[in-house]
Write a structure and sequence with these properties.
It is globular and about 55 Å long. The protein is an alpha/beta fold.
């Protein structure tokens, strides 16, 4: 067996483990709650556990794809290629990945945004292992201000997946960033924290536990200026537990949009999720085709 085959087998095993454990946790946490009834309704005539097992396999496949493309995030070309400037008056998407991911997570979504007319997506990155939430937010605030400087007069669209959605809410508390934003979208973000963070490693996961001081502060956080916000949530998300923690707190100003049943990572790749986000953006911050 070659080294490549061993590496692929290892990635597949890790992906299967993550998909299986997260969905087992979802079922365990939802037993006896209204969300169990929602999951059973989604399963339809099939047994709920069989449906959940199929969801776990889909989640594992998406996790494998994410891990397989991860090295692309270390290269400079995704950011340079995707940041091409064609329509100088159109909103500029700024995409912030989730915990343990990197800018490569956005390659498919960024291409879909470009096809929709948002021609200059910036995929920002951060270090997940040694930094706390405020450290990451501070670094990304500097990066976002750099994007504002590079595109004078162009409004920003902030989009975050998972932890990235929490970070964009934190960025919107900065007056200059909020004033420069036309819209914000979160995908599968733990707006009230996630119990699954207890199984993670690093300072960041401690800050997204539901009872952490950071999450209590995020509950009270208010945008510095009114910015239309959309929190996309999947009823089959197995990474944010309990599922109601996907719902943003009232002070955030975000409205909630239910997506098709898809996994946490699958939201990055699912065409229906991308279409839902782009359709909403087309209403609140449409591209300028000049």
């Amino acid at each position: 067996m070659t080294l490549v085959a061993v590496l692929l087998a290892l990635l597949a095993a890790v992906s299967l483990f993550v998909g299986t454990v997260s969905h087992a946790m979802l079922w365990y946490e939802c037993r006896g709650t209204p969300h169990e009834a929602r999951l059973r309704a989604l399963a339809g005539p099939r047994a709920a556990l069989l449906w959940l097992a199929r969801r776990a396999l889909t989640a594992s496949a998406c996790q494998f794809l994410l891990l397989l493309t991860y090295p692309l995030g270390w290269l400079p070309f995704p950011r340079r290629f995707l940041a091409a400037r064609v329509r100088p008056k159109s909103p500029v998407p700024v995409l912030i990945h989730g915990l343990y991911h990197n800018p490569a997570a956005w390659l498919l979504m960024a291409l879909r945004l470009r096809r929709a007319g948002y021609d200059a997506p910036h995929c920002l990155g951060y270090q997940s292992w040694r930094s706390g939430f405020e450290d990451v937010a501070g670094q990304l605030a500097r990066d976002v201000r750099d994007v504002i400087t590079r595109h004078p007069g162009r409004p920003l669209i902030l989009m975050g997946h998972s932890l990235g959605g929490l970070i964009i809410r934190r960025l919107l508390a900065e007056p200059d960033i909020a004033a420069a934003c036309a819209a914000a979208v979160s995908l599968g973000s733990p707006h009230r924290g996630s119990r699954l963070a207890a199984f993670g490693y690093g300072r960041l996961v401690e800050d997204i536990l539901p009872d952490s001081a950071n999450m209590r502060a995020m509950e009270r956080l208010v945008p510095a200026a009114p910015v239309p916000g959309l929190a996309l949530c999947s009823p089959a998300d197995a990474m944010v537990i309990p599922p109601d923690n996907l719902l943003p707190p009232g002070p955030s100003g975000f409205e909630v949009g239910q997506t098709v049943p898809c996994d946490h990572v699958q939201m990055l790749f699912h065409p229906a999720v991308a279409a839902q986000a782009i359709d909403w953006l087309g209403r609140v911050a449409p591209p300028v085709r000049n």
